[in-house]
Specification:
Elements lengths: L18 H5 L2 H10 L5 H17 L5 H14 L2 H18 L23 H10 L3 H13 L3 H5 L6 E2 L4 E2 L14 E2 L2 H13 L2 H5 L8 H15 L5 H14 L4 H8 L6 H5 L5 H11 L6
Antiparallel strand pairs: 1-2, 2-3
Helix pairs in contact: 2-3, 3-5, 6-11, 7-9, 7-12, 12-13
Amino acid sequence: MGRGGFEPPTFAVNHETKCEVLRDKIPRFADWLRVDEVKSKRTVQDYTQKIRFILNHIPSFDYGKIREFLKSLQEQRSPETYSSYLKALKNFTRFLGCPQLVSSYKFPRSPFQPKPIWSKQDLKTFYEALPTLRMKTYFLITASSGLRKNEVLELKFADIDFNKRMIIPKGHIGNSKHSWVSFYNEEAEEVLRKYLDLMTVFQKSKGKLFPISSRDFQLEWKEARVRTGLQIKVKDLRDWFCQEMGELGVSDRFIDAFCGRTPKSILARHYSDYSPERLKRIYDQAGLKVLL
């Protein structure tokens, strides 16, 4: 008896298979990733973009042409980039029913490199250089919650308990990501109040806490980088949060919960209390400060 759900079709892929034929199947591939594989919206977009790029750069979808593409990628790009394209290809060939085309390829092992963590002084300098109160608010909420960039950008007023400073993001589903709850600190609360006072009725009617286009976000963030010379990325705030909370004595499994990472150990999965009340108590006891 076959498995339930969307059954990926099996295509007769050979040296005569033209890439334009497969391009038409990308929407169905995206649907398969989203429904059958339970990939996040961001992963679906990433994989489909990469497959479209590959199909635009090889004349036919066969073992030899795929090998040439991957060899070129391996020689010219980083191991991380190579791995990301290989992941997309492995999923696409499974969807097509011809996983043997890339089954022999292994993911490269990247040597461990400790991440440099920005200092509080660097964060404060960068924060002060941000051009708008909206971006300053976004910065402090992101840095003090440990949430992902888009999770904070997609926040709606209904996702926040302003009395408890509690955030319930809804931006991710997937095998390694999960929406738990996180919190923002008193510094972020103070700036948030000022920001909300300045929001217009029209802006609030949109329902989103940070109604900002991707272009404007990039321009405002870039302005602070140019002013300070600090090449801080949004993801660096999440890394800083994890490091700082660890130094404040918070257990890894609770840091993972704040960051929306699925627990890995049996202890974390089955014997830890992740109730909002306990997470709130642990967060407040840590006394996290970003600017002081």
